[in-house]
Each structure stands twice: as structure tokens, then as C-alpha cells.
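// run 5 | inverse folding | seed 20
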């Protein structure tokens, strides 16, 4: 049985998002899940700066392992294609804004990206196929939802007095999010990164409310209403907004 999570947060490492959990353990542990999620468990006595230094020392190993995991995942998944996600080869959507996507041959670390005011820059060291570019954009969307979702979840979990067990981000065909009430795990749809950020916040509150009420009963909607009175407007925005390229 794994140790109880004492506190958790997320860290950034040159475009990568790491889920950091502090537990009553002796050693620091770094692992990559099959979906590309990066998780680090650290003793409660370690500081965030010490963890950051550890991550920087392991960055080359981490990127090599991550590349192998993502390659294995791509072999199992169907091929990416333009139009399958909000990306036409030249533009992406981020939090409700349509931005140019600039793929730049660079000496910077391969597979990293930067969000600027008027564009998103994707850096690579060798030519990328159309499929690889789409996979890069999918990874970008996932990382953005993972980071923003974790930040929102930490704030709202405290406000609502609930303790979610963790966050996973992946593409869903029919849902924006889900909550496993048995384990406390929260799932978010990768493509939420394309919608306005208030839509993401609504989904986070919605799923956390399931930790108090499992079904969509009047009591459930009363919980959502208590913490997010404008939830109906957010839901309508989620339904009406279309990231047209």
C-alpha cells in the first residue's frame, strides 16, 4: 500500500510538466506512465528547490525515457492527422485564442515549446513529419491542461474541502472530464486547452463536486451552485464555443 500524499504540486522543466507528491518515504522516485504523465515522489523533508535540482540533473534521462514511452504509445494509437484535433498545420488554439504555430529548427532542446503573446513556438532539431507535428501539438495541449488543471484543482479542492487523489489528462470522445469516486482520481480532456480557461475551471469544480455527491442529483447541482454560481454560463460557453481553424 502506497504512502499517503502529504501535499502535492506541479513543476515545470523546460516545457515538461511534473506531478510532484510529497509522502512519508525515504527516497525520491521518478516515473513516467504509459500516457506520458511524469510523476515524482519525494520525502516530505525535501524542499521544492532540492527537487528542482534533482529534476535538472535527470533531464537528459527523463527526455530519453519520455521519447521511448511516447513512441510506444504512438504505435498503439491510431495515426495522428490534421483536422483530428484543433490544428491545421499553421495554427493552434490555446484558452480560447487562435494563435500561429511556429515550428522552429533550433539548438534548443528537441520537443520543447514556448507560449508567447502572439504565437506558440515549437522547437525541434530534425525535420518533423506531419504526424510528428500533430503528436507535438497533442502533447502541448495535454501539458497545458495538466499544468492549469492541477493549479485549479489545488485551489478548489481546498475551498470545497475535498481531497482528490490525482489528475490524469487524456483525449476523451464523449466527456470533458470524469471522477472516480472510489479512488478520488480526476480525469480531464486534453482538448480543454483549446476552450476558454473558465470552461476548464467549471469542469474542475464539476468533477470535484462528485467527491461529495457521486451522481447528478439536485444535491450535486446545489454543491456546484454554491461554489460556482455562474456554472450555467460556463457550461453554455463550453457547448457553444467552437475552435474553428
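// decoded
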Amino acid at each position: 500500500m502506497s504512502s499517503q500524499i502529504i501535499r502535492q504540486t506541479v513543476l515545470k522543466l523546460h516545457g515538461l510538466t511534473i506531478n510532484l507528491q510529497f509522502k512519508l518515504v525515504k527516497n525520491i522516485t521518478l516515473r513516467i506512465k504509459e500516457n506520458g504523465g511524469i510523476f515524482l515522489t519525494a520525502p516530505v523533508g525535501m524542499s521544492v528547490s532540492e527537487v528542482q535540482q534533482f529534476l535538472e540533473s535527470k533531464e537528459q534521462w527523463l527526455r530519453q525515457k519520455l521519447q521511448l514511452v511516447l513512441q510506444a504509445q504512438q504505435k498503439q494509437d491510431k495515426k495522428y492527422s490534421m483536422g483530428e484535433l484543433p490544428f491545421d498545420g499553421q495554427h493552434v488554439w490555446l484558452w480560447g485564442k487562435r494563435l500561429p504555430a511556429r515550428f522552429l529548427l533550433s539548438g534548443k532542446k528537441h520537443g520543447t515549446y514556448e507560449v508567447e503573446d502572439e504565437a506558440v513556438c515549437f522547437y525541434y532539431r530534425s525535420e518533423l513529419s506531419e504526424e510528428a507535428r500533430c503528436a507535438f501539438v497533442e502533447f502541448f495541449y495535454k501539458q497545458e491542461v495538466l499544468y492549469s488543471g492541477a493549479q485549479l484543482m489545488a485551489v478548489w479542492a481546498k475551498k470545497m474541502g475535498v481531497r482528490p487523489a490525482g489528475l490524469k489528462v487524456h483525449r476523451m470522445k464523449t466527456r470533458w472530464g470524469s471522477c472516480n469516486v472510489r479512488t478520488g482520481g480526476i480525469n480531464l480532456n486534453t482538448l480543454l486547452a483549446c476552450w476558454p480557461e473558465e470552461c476548464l475551471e467549471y469542469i474542475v469544480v464539476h468533477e470535484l463536486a462528485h467527491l461529495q455527491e457521486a451522481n447528478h442529483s439536485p444535491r450535486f447541482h446545489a454543491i456546484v451552485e454554491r461554489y460556482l454560481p455562474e456554472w450555467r454560463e460556463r457550461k453554455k460557453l463550453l457547448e457553444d464555443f467552437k475552435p474553428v481553424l
